[in-house]
Amino acid sequence: MEQGTAPRSAEAAGWSERRARSVARGVATTHDLVIVRAQGAWLWDSEGREYLDGMAGLGVMNVGHGHPAVVAAIEAQARTLLHTCAHTAWNAPYIELAEALARRAPGDFAKKVLLVNTGAEAVENAIKIARAHTRRTAVLAFQQAFHGRTYMALTLTDKAHGYKEGFAPFAPDVHRAPSAYCYRCPVGRQPTTCAVECLDAVRRQVAVGIGEDNLAAVIVEPVQGEGGFVPMPPAFLQGLRRLCDETGAVLVADEVQCGMGRAGSLFAVEQMGVVPDIVLLAKSLAGGLPLGAVVGRAEIIDAPVPGGLGGTFAGNPVACAAALAVLDVLEREDLPARARAIGERLRAAALAARPRCPGLGDVRGVGAMIGLEFVHPDGSPNPGLALAVVAAARRRGLLLMRAGVYDNVVRLLPPLILSDEETRLFAERLAGALAEAGEAA
Questions:
Q1: Same domain, 47 and 78
Q2: Judgement on whether residues 373 and 341 belong to the same structural domain of the protein
Q3: How are beta strands 215-220 and 230-231 bridged, if at all?
Q4: How far apart are CA 101 and CA 342, in angstroms?
Q5: What is the DSSP letter of 205?
Q6: What pLDDT is stored for residue 195 in this prediction?
Q7: Given this model, what pLDDT does residue 1 score?
Q8: What pLDDT score was predicted for residue 29?
């Protein structure tokens, strides 16, 4: 992540100085702003400036800021029961949310649910569960992957700069294979002729570098997030499903960023013809409160012995009540369909602006999860142009941020409650930012 480049007032500079004195240096931010209020798809900073939110709290605010149903659920639960640790006694919202997620998750089989606090915790526990179930240790992750900042999650993450520097050694028996990044195909094919030959590299890695009898889990993001908003082709995910079926490994779908309606369906894998053994959720699950979930086959989730899973705040009743309200809003307002409509409009706007921004090399994504990849004339990554687009958008009152292992992708990640007029305004400001940055390049 990068610091914002817009000029700062004395008040903003004061907040920045206070932050520098008190907050850990390792906590980076894209925009050096202090947000004091939010509603729907809008943000206001400490100086009263208004922004259209193109980041959604890094994919957290799918149902928008301050959705009345979510706020009401939080208020009611906070008045009734603020907290009881699941290790001391159950709370009803934990069990109700587990039932709701098990009902909705892909797969016609019995499922169970573990609630945690974050996406990284969901990842950590998924690997623990897979190892306990298979009694094996090896885990396969992919290039461009991001799975979090705790130690196992960080080991699974591919990018060193900004994430892994200075933190080695990492967890053992974690292996990495090429992912199906079609714009930068790891085996040199073109998207129009690709038969997912990168699966051959994955299979060779398992057969030769790991050993099929050693493989406990394959963990994959159906749409890579921090890696550049790269959707995995259905054939690639289907090949991973066959590989896990053949080897007895657990297939884990990390939907922390692409799930909960973001990709145009409640779970992204629903569009890809794949049923994972375990699916991971967090970010937008509780509408702004910390909550994650590990949802999977009952016999796999039950592999750890009692006491092997949990946490003091995991399954907090207020967060669970918020999540139940979020699920209701997603379905009642049909926000997955809204995600598809928003994504189509923003994709069209970016493609229409491409002649004025020749460095826009690729426009990709599913639902309201669109990545714009910027390149030099020779096709090499151009992080400077991506940063210029973020800065130009901010000047127009649209907050965006970068992604990608080369920091050359701008992510479009708005709340799913954008109205038609807000979507038009988002597209207009985006097109203006692309033109400004492209003409200045």
A1: no
A2: yes
A3: unpaired
A4: 25
A5: I
A6: 67
A7: 37
A8: 92
What single string gives the DSSP state of each residue in 310-348?
--SSTT-HHHHHHHHHHHHHHHHTTHHHHHHHHHHHHHH
Domain count of the fold of the chain: 2
Same domain, 85 and 204: yes
Place of tokens 């918020």: 322
Q: At what angle do helices 92-104 and 317-332 cross, to 10 degrees?
A: 40
The answer to whether residues 376 and 289 belong to one domain is: no
Find, among 62, 57, 59, the residue nearest to 330 by Cα: 62
φ and ψ of 258, to 5 deg: -90, -5
Q: Which of 282, 308, 332 is the last residue of a domain?
A: 332
Q: What is the pLDDT of residue 194?
A: 75
Contact yes or no for 206/40 (Cβ under 8 A): no
The answer to whether 215 touches 136, Cβ cutoff 8 Å, is yes
The answer to whether residues 255 and 357 belong to one domain is no
Please tell me the predicted confidence (pLDDT) of residue 118: 98
* Cis before 68? omega within 30: no
The parent domain of residue 28 ranges over 10-63+334-440
Residues of the chain with pLDDT below 50 are: 1-5
Q: What is the pLDDT of residue 2?
A: 45
* Same domain, residue pair 131 and 49: no
Residue in this structure with the two tokens 């973001």, named with its chain if needed: 262
Q: Is 4 inside a domain boundary?
A: no
Do 347 and 286 fall into the same domain?
Answer: no
Characterize 82-98 residue by residue with b for buried, 16 or more Cβ atoms within 10 angstroms of its Cβ, and e for exposed. Answer: eeeebeeeebebbeebb
35-39: strand order across its sheet: 35-39, 42-45, 50-53, 398-399
Confidence at residue 8, expressed as pLDDT on a 0 to 100 scale:
61
- Chain centroid to CA 119: 9
Rounded CA gap, 83 and 91, in Å?
Answer: 8
Amino acid of residue 117: N
